């Protein structure tokens, strides 16, 4: 049986952070061994919010270097740049005819962007989910490793695929968001305000490029409170987030100690010391981030290698994309 096709993308709009790692890249690295994987840098998507392209080329290379530093193997997975595959734009055009203004206007990310960039509500922003659907369907992918924030975009991709199949014939399988273990991941910002993200509060975002002392500073400033006052309290989400980060980077013993301390706190007797917990987390996080940061920095200096990787990825991605676009042309235009 041939392997299932996997696809995912990351926008080159800034430095990659822990949310990207645990929501997406950690899965890429595992999936490359079990599936036929396509991963790409979504540089067209970044134009919907970042029209100034001065820093774009370098940002594309940084995303590639950071992914490789995290363990992505470009011999196992196809890794390419979106704009190197014009077939995606052609599929996007076709899917646009099946996407309705009303449903696009209702998507959460579009409504957020209307609020945050009211002076640039462009049509690309409105049709962002259509381009994302084209990214996925161009390789007829079925599994899409992404964080929880992408669920709605995946649902829309299925809708467009279904409409296409219904009208022109069965070409596309249905794609679903994927995470090992089932639950999609959402890493919160360290200040407790929403998800960790490339463009939000930088002091509350842990980047894979952060130096040791910055990591320490950010974690020690993370939002906490005076601690639980009852045994087995429910954790507020900003505390739960610290535990999530600890589970991802510390040893089981360390996590267990702080879980026990949290759960055994009772009236007037708060056992857990968030100051100590954050110090421990900071050191474990440094051990986690440092090798990635150093390897990514090293790779970014090797522009010949990165150019070679980009070229190789483009060739492989286009081979798959052109097969799909041939089917689409035949189905739609005969
Ligand atoms: P950002 O939102 O930081 O700009 P992208 O939109 O490029 O990042 O997202 C790339 C991948 O990282 C997507 O799969 C997305 O779901 C995942 N991701 C981004 N932020 C988080 C987060 N805070 N928690 C979990 N996954 C996330
Ligand atoms: N919209 C995704 C994000 O913001 C990035 C992306 C673009 C993507 N195309 C994709 C993710 C296709 C998965 C599949 O994170």
State the gist of this model:
This protein is mainly alpha-helical and 334 residues long. The protein has helices spanning 18-34, 43-46, 56-69, 86-96, 101-105, 108-116, 123-126, 128-137, 151-168, 212-220, 237-249, 252-264, 274-301, 303-333, and strands at residues 5-10, 36-41, 78-81, 143-145, 176-178.
Output the keywords:
334 residues, mainly alpha, Rossmann fold, Tyrosyl-Transfer RNA Synthetase, 2 domains, 14 helices, binds tryptophan
What does this structure look like?
By secondary structure, this protein is mainly alpha-helical. It has 2 domains: 5-185 and 303-333, HUPs (Rossmann fold, 3-Layer(aba) Sandwich); 210-296, Tyrosyl-Transfer RNA Synthetase. Helices cover 56% and strands 7% of the residues. It is built from 14 helices and 5 strands. The protein has helices at 18-34, 43-46, 56-69, 86-96, 101-105, 108-116, 123-126, 128-137, 151-168, 212-220, 237-249, 252-264, 274-301, 303-333, and strands at 5-10, 36-41, 78-81, 143-145, 176-178. Strands 1-2-3 form a 3-stranded parallel beta sheet. Strand 1, helix 1 (18-34) and strand 2 (36-41) form a beta-alpha-beta unit. Helix 3 packs across helix 13 (274-301), helix 4 (86-96) runs parallel beside helix 14 (303-333) and helix 11 (237-249) crosses helix 13 (274-301). The longest helix is centred in the last third of the chain and has 31 residues, at 303-333. The chain binds adenosine-5'-diphosphate (ADP) and tryptophan (TRP).
């Amino acid at each position: 049986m041939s392997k299932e096709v996997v696809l995912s993308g990351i926008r080159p709009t800034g430095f990659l952070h822990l949310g990207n790692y645990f929501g997406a890249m950690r899965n890429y690295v595992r999936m490359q061994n079990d599936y036929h994987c396509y991963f790409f840098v979504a540089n067209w998507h970044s134009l919907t919010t970042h029209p100034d392209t001065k820093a774009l080329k370098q940002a594309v290379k940084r995303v590639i270097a950071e992914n490789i530093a995290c363990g992505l193997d470009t011999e196992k997975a196809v890794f390419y740049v979106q704009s190197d595959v014009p077939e995606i734009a052609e599929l996007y055009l076709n899917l646009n005819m099946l996407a309705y203004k009303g449903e696009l206007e209702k998507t959460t990310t579009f409504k957020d962007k209307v609020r945050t960039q009211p002076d640039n509500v462009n049509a690309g922003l409105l049709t962002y989910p259509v381009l994302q659907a084209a990214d996925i369907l161009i390789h007829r992918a079925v599994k899409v490793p992404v964080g929880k924030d992408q669920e709605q975009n995946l649902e829309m991709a299925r809708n467009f695929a279904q409409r296409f199949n219904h009208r022109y014939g069965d070409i596309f399988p249905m794609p679903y968001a994927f995470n090992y273990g089932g639950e999609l991941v959402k890493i919160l910002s360290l200040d407790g305000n929403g998800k960790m993200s490339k463009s939000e509060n930088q002091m509350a975002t842990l980047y894979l490029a952060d130096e040791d002392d910055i990591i320490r500073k950010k974690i020690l400033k993370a939002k906490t409170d005076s601690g639980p006052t009852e045994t087995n309290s429910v954790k507020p989400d900003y505390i739960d987030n610290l535990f999530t980060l600890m589970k991802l980077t510390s040893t089981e013993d360390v996590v267990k100690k702080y879980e026990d301390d949290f759960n055994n706190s009772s009236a007037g007797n708060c056992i857990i010391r968030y100051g100590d917990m954050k110090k421990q987390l900071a050191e474990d996080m440094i051990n986690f981030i440092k090798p990635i940061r150093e390897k990514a920095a090293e790779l970014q200096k090797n522009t010949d290698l990165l150019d070679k990787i980009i070229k190789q990825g483009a060739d492989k991605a286009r081979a798959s994309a052109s097969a799909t676009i041939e089917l689409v042309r035949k189905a739609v235009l005969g």
